[in-house]
Specification:
With 271 residues, the chain is of the alpha+beta class. The protein folds into 2 domains: 1-57, Arc Repressor Mutant, subunit A, CATH 1.10.10; 65-236, Beta-Lactamase (2-Layer Sandwich). Helix content is 41%, strand content 19%. It contains 9 helices and 8 strands. It has helices at 2-9, 21-28, 32-44, 59-89, 131-137, 142-148, 163-175, 221-235, 255-263, and strands at 48-51, 54-57, 92-99, 102-109, 124-126, 180-183, 190-199, 202-212. Strands 5-4-3-8-7-6 form a 6-stranded antiparallel beta sheet, sandwiched between helices. Strands 1-2 form a two-stranded antiparallel ribbon. The radius of gyration is 20 Å and the shape is elongated. It starts with a helix and ends in an 8-residue tail after the last helix. Pfam families: HTH_IclR (PF09339), IclR_C (PF01614). Residues 1-59 form the HTH iclR-type domain. One of its GO terms (biological process) is negative regulation of DNA-templated transcription.
């Protein structure tokens, strides 16, 4: 029995892996009834969770270092994409996850210009003050925003400190195809554009591009969206996400064209 349980658990390479009964039966070569019985036992013991999208690692498995393993896997999957994005934009690139009401930075890429951005790998910042954080908050239930950000503190004079204004901002992000902007909200001299990587159960992480407060971040939106699409397809199990219909990276986007692109649509389901 222990060998069979181990055989099944080994199918879940990282916390975002989803497997259905048919996949488990095919890949383990166990009888369907046997696989189903063991999966039920693993769910009861909290080694696995059973959701509408299939089975995934449960709280007990994640409590044994699964969260850190998942973050390392995400960072590894994203690393080449982040480096390419930093080279093509000549700006600083971040990868972060949501941790409570803060963002937790998993990676930071940007060469010499990175020293001008006061963030660090392993550091944290208030989620509602960053493009990374707002990009993820936009896909959370409104009730959670009400609970966790009712007394949001301003980090700079431009930070959002009002719950109603925060909800308006998150609605704009959803209507803007998931793209979040901030200028001087976390650090007075920094501007940023971010987008979330969305898994089956909500935002799993976010990528951002950072420059000084005068940088026209709208112009790097197509490259950022392509990068997020690439990381999502590499990291998340299951079928590839639809590719956004973007112009070629080398094409120059006019301010008018970018404005139309960011304001058309209802938020999309790309990422």
């Amino acid at each position: 029995m222990v060998e069979r349980m181990t055989l099944i658990l080994d199918l879940f390479e990282h916390p975002h892996t989803r497997r259905n009964l048919e996949e488990v039966t095919r890949r383990t070569r166990l009888p369907r009834s046997t696989a189903h019985r063991i999966l039920d036992q693993l769910v009861r013991l909290r080694w696995l969770d059973h959701t509408t999208s299939g089975y995934r690692l449960g709280k007990r498995a994640l409590g044994l270092g699964g969260r850190e393993i998942g973050q390392n896997a995400l960072r590894s999957a994203a690393a080449p994409v982040l480096h390419d994005l930093a080279i093509r934009t000549k700006l600083v690139v971040h990868l972060a996850v949501l941790s409570g009401t803060e963002v937790y930075y998993l990676d930071k890429v940007g060469g010499r210009s990175a020293v001008d951005v006061p963030s660090r790998v392993g550091g944290r910042a208030p989620a509602h003050c960053t493009a990374l954080g707002k990009a993820m908050l936009a896909w959370l239930p409104p009730e959670r925003i009400d609970t966790e950000y009712a007394d949001a503190v301003r980090r700079t004079p431009r930070s959002i400190g009002d719950l109603g204004i925060l909800h308006q901002e998150l609605d704009r992000i959803r209507r803007r195809r998931g793209l979040a902007f901030e200028r001087g909200e976390c650090f007075a001299h920094v501007s940023c554009i971010g987008i979330a990587l969305r898994g089956q159960e909500g935002p799993a992480a976010a990528i951002s591009v950072v420059g000084d407060v005068q940088t026209p971040m709208e112009r790097v939106a197509p490259l950022l969206m392509q990068a997020a699409h690439a990381v999502s397809n590499e990291f998340f199990a299951g079928p590839a996400l639809p590719r956004p219909d973007l112009a070629a990276p080398q094409q120059t986007w006019s301010s008018e064209a970018m404005t139309r692109f960011l304001t058309v649509g209802d938020g999309g389901d790309w990422l």
